[in-house]
Design brief:
heterodimer, A: 185 residues, alpha+beta, Ubiquitin-like (UB roll), DNA polymerase, domain 1, 2 domains, five-stranded mixed beta sheet, 14% strand, B: 291 residues, Uridine Diphospho-n-acetylenolpyruvylglucosamine Reductase, domain 2, Uridine Diphospho-n-acetylenolpyruvylglucosamine Reductase, domain 3, Enolase-like, domain 1, 3 domains, five-stranded antiparallel beta sheet, four-stranded antiparallel beta sheet, 12 helices, 24% strand, globular
């Protein structure tokens, strides 16, 4: 998803009053945007202003993981990355993994396992799970809990989320049975 | 909440970075940004211009040679966790990095940034102190090395001059007979700031004698520190259960903690003793007592 008409202004700051900034090229979910941004604009703010509102603003301190994105495949807090620093990187948000019609197996597993309550932490959880499963297709429960330890959920006891990641791992392994790397470390 | 406005300079080489810093020594270097951006947002730190070190590839490497391991200042905590040379020569650092913040933060936060930012609770500091690490500083004036134990000068204060950049951390190769153990107390198991942390390392010879001992503490004084008196208790009396208890008491006495949201000074002093004792008992179990 992108290019939404509604552009919620996260910062509440009048763009004209800010320093002029420079043109930054951001590649989000495979699509490239050219936007003029001041140096102090975070990637979180830039993404939401571009319409990627699946990236949630939680704590703005790097504590909660609601603003998680993949930056060249690595899961990071977008509130702690400046937009200028993300130039040239492949930025992936939850919406870049799949859509409602064609969900990613991880997203499907979150729905099937009942891992979504209010949904605010879900995009970040899904991305933390994606980063984990890309490196470790068959994680133990402890490894799953470790991988989502920077993503806070205030609704659940994490049980269903852990189950969703386990289920997603199993389904992804079944989908790609010939692919090597299914071995535990 | 939006960050206060600042300029951002993004050099692509170390040469350009130290030239820029020489021209404007008031610039605040930004490494991973996981502490600095939070503090800028909270107005605990002010900066007109940030010097972004994120595009300088030459600061990212981790290398090993015949006498030392060198970790580039911009190596992330995640890079350190994945590196086999670090695992072999500085397992104590690996242990601490496993408990460092969260996976998301570990993908951005850097070893150099963690030291140069000089938080009393910097989790990379106690293990690196216990590993006899030396930091390398560079400026247009040249390069110099400073023992990490001499580097921390106070809360957010270091021996780094305004025109210098911390470019790397040098750690001697591990010698045979080295044992180490780490303990961190946070308010939760992961994604937490240390209430207190302890890094211990000893070198035990063939006869089981304790040839060298290092005990370093985090979050219990204005700076991460080594406790020489506690170390001496081990080298004098050997790596025994009794010496471990003595060293733990001496370590707790050497702290000067504060009360804050994570714990009181009195609590920190008590848990320091417990954490040091537990770490040292792990070492005793691993190979002390005149094996």
């Amino acid at each position: 998803m992108s290019g939404a008409n509604v552009k919620p202004t996260l910062t509440g700051e009048s763009r004209s009053s800010a320093r002029p900034g420079r043109i930054v090229r951001l590649t989000v979910n495979g699509r490239t945007h050219e936007v003029t941004l001041p140096a102090h604009r975070t990637l979180l703010e830039a993404l939401r202003d571009l319409g990627y509102v699946d990236v949630k603003n939680g704590c703005e301190k790097g504590d909660c993981g609601a603003c998680a994105v993949l930056l060249d495949g690595k899961v990071v807090n977008s509130c702690l990355v400046l937009a200028w620093q993300a130039e040239g990187a492949a930025i992936t948000t939850n919406a870049g993994l799949g859509t409602v019609d064609r969900p990613h197996p991880i997203q499907e597993a979150f729905a099937d396992a009942g891992a979504v309550q209010c949904g605010y932490c879900t995009p970040g959880m899904v991305l933390a799970a994606k980063a984990l499963l890309d490196e470790n297709p068959n994680p133990s429960e402890a490894e799953i809990r470790e991988a989502i330890s920077g993503n806070l959920c205030r609704c659940t006891g994490y049980g269903q989320i852990v189950e969703a990641v386990r289920l997603a791992a199993q389904r992804l392994r079944e989908k790609a049975p010939t692919k090597q790397g299914g071995e535990k470390r | 909440m939006t960050l206060p406005a600042f300029e951002l300079v993004q050099p692509r080489s170390l040469r350009d970075a130290i030239d820029a810093l020489a021209a404007a020594p008031g610039m605040e270097p930004i490494a991973g940004g996981t502490s600095l951006l939070v503090d800028l947002r909270g107005a605990r730190v002010k900066a007109e211009t940030l010097l972004d070190l994120g595009r300088i590839d030459e600061l990212r490497g981790i290398t090993i040679d015949s006498h030392e391991l060198v970790i580039g200042a911009m190596a992330t905590i995640a890079d350190v966790l994945k590196n086999p040379a670090v695992a072999e020569h500085a397992p104590l650092l690996v242990e601490a990095c496993r408990l460092f913040a969260s996976p998301l933060v570990r993908n951005r936060a850097t070893i150099g940034g963690n030291l140069a930012y000089a938080s009393p609770a910097a989790d990379a500091a106690p293990p690196l102190l216990a590993l006899d690490a030396v930091v390398e500083l560079r400026s247009v004036r040249g390069r110099r090395q400073v023992a990490l134990a001499e580097f921390f000068k106070g809360v957010r204060k270091t021996a780094r001059k305004p025109d210098e950049l911390l470019v790397g951390i040098h750690i001697p190769r591990a010698v045979p007979g080295t044992l180490s153990a780490y303990r961190k107390l946070g308010l939760r198991k992961a994604d937490s700031i240390s209430v207190a942390s302890v890094a211990t390392r000893v070198v035990v010879d063939m006869a089981g004698r304790c040839q060298a001992a290092r005990i370093a503490l985090g979050a219990v004084a204005p700076v991460p520190l080594r406790v020489a008196k506690a170390e001496a208790a081990l080298t004098r009396h050997g790596l025994t259960v009794e010496a471990a208890a003595d060293a733990a008491k001496l370590a707790a006495e050497a702290t000067s903690p504060i009360d804050d949201v994570r714990g009181t000074a009195a609590y920190r002093r008590r848990v320091t003793e417990t954490l040091v004792k537990r770490a040292l008992l792990e070492l005793v179990e691993k190979g002390g007592d005149g094996r």
